[in-house]
Amino acid sequence: MINVRPADARHHDPRRRRKVWRTFDPRDRTDRLADGFGAIEALDENRLPPRGDVPPYAREDAEIVTYVREGTVVYEDSLGHTGVIHAGEFQHMIAALGARHSEANASRADWAQVFQIRLRPAQAGLEPGLEQKRFSAADRRGGLCLVASPDARRGSLRIHQDALLYSAMLGPGKHVVHELREGRSAWLHLVEGEITLGDVVLSSGDGAGLTAERAVSLTAREETEILLLDLGAESPRS
Fold first, then answer.
1. Mean per-residue pLDDT, 121-130
2. With contact defined as beta carbons under 8 Å apart, do 225 and 169 qualify?
3. pLDDT tens-place string over residues 184-199
4. Using CA atoms, how far apart are residues 188 and 206, in angstroms rounded to an integer?
5. Closest Cα partner for 231 from 217, 214, 211?
6. Which residues pair with 2 in a beta bridge?
7. Average pLDDT, the chain
8. Residues sharing a CB contact under 8 Å with residue 111, sequence separation 6 or more, in sequence order
9. Cα–Cα distance measured from residue 96 to residue 62, given in angstroms and rounded to the nearest whole number
């Protein structure tokens, strides 16, 4: 079963000049995906003006993967971590209850595009921490590049949740098949471009949840970038 979330169905928050699109909006209690999909609690696209900041999350335990697609982001937290995330880099953060964390566009002139995926904690009391890696366009060109996994396989970021995060940049006509083991689900997000997913056409900003499927099988119709999460046996919320 494929459950499509069109780009224009996302919650759009234009406050303070920043542009925020939330695939899942917990404030909309009429939406059956308000609380996310499986282990995914949030998937946000942020376009930040010069010196604009990323909207803060509630201060509670979570694992957050940040992907800077364009621009440069500076961050700091109350635990003493400070640094910079450049375009093409992914950061994994374990956020703890009560800890303060902020992120902002480092540029005085250019906008930044930032994606954040918030995963429910696999267990309580995870120790706060940060890990950051660059995955080049060459690494992600033409097929699925593993960005995060529970065992840090193939040089990926280590996360605690039973999830695999992939990134891919695909040329027109490129076909990709990712098999799903029994009991697993997947969420696909179109960062940019257009694909066919079965009988469905997805465009920039669209998302799709797959349950009870044997594989994610897609074909790029133009230059395309995707994020794909292969999720553990936890039943997706509906």
1. 82
2. yes
3. 999 999 999 999 999 9
4. 8
5. 211
6. 210
7. 91
8. 47, 48, 49, 50, 52, 70, 71, 105
9. 7
Residue 107 to residues 48, 116, 148, Cα–Cα distance (Å): 10, 19, 27
* Runs of H (alpha helix) within 75-231: 137-140
Q: Which residues of 60-92 are buried (b: 16+ CB within 10 A; e: fewer)?
A: ebbbbbbbbbebbbbbebeeeeeeebebbbbbb
CA angle 105–60–150, rounded 5-degree value: 80
Asked if the model's pLDDT at residue 77 lies above 90, the reply is no
Residue 168 CA to residue 176 CA, distance in Å, equals 10
Question: What value does the CA radius of gyration of the chain take, rounded to a whole number of Å?
Answer: 17
Nearest to 195 by CA among 187, 184, 204: 204
Identify whether the C-beta of residue 228 lies closer than 8 Å to the C-beta of residue 144.
yes
CB 180 within 8 A of CB 172: no
Whole-angstrom Cα distance, residue 210 to residue 73?
32
Residues of the chain with pLDDT > 70: what percent? 94
In the numeric block, which tokens belong to residue 26?
A: 């917990």
- Evaluate if residue 179 carries a pLDDT over 80: yes
d(C-alpha 194, C-alpha 185), whole Å: 22
User: What are phi and psi for residue 52, nearest 5 degrees?
Assistant: -70, 150
pLDDT on residue 213: 96
Token pair of 83 as six digits: 């640094």
Token output for 95 = 């956020």
CA distance linking residue 176 with residue 26, whole number of Å: 32
C-alpha 213: how far from its chain's center?
A: 21
